[in-house]
Q: What sequence folds into this?
């Protein structure tokens, strides 16, 4: 199943996509200002180009697991996106995804954008969960 992940941010949103088998994940360019018209149009282009069956949105919970302002923004965004797309839209706990993305970026010397690497971490975790549940 092809999936796309978003590491949602108000200014920059990281994007990652899997291959159709859900085995390989790669970062895509960030989307700027996803809540504005230009950002929304950029997301529509990515969704049309990639045609994911599932869109995984990072759910930025506090370390305690509680939902803060950013988590409510992610939930609201997911709700709006569900009305616009045929793909299934799910939220995935993204705690520590940026820390892991920073580690990977340093170890690999990657030139990929940190936000999109964080989206890769989120998507990989979601895909592992799907395989474990199967």
A:
């Amino acid at each position: 199943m092809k999936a796309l992940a978003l590491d949602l941010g108000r200014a920059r949103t990281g994007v990652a996509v899997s291959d159709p088998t859900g085995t390989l994940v790669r970062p895509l360019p960030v989307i700027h200002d996803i809540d504005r018209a230009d950002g929304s149009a950029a997301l529509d282009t990515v969704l049309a180009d990639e045609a994911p069956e599932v869109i995984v949105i990072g759910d930025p919970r506090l370390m305690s697991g509680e939902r803060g302002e950013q988590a409510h923004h992610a939930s609201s965004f997911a709700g709006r996106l569900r009305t616009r797309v045929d793909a299934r839209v799910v939220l995935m706990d993204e705690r520590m995804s940026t820390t892991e993305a920073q580690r990977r970026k340093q170890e690999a010397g990657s030139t990929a954008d940190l936000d999109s690497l964080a989206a890769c971490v989120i998507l990989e975790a979601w895909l592992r969960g799907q395989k474990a549940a199967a």
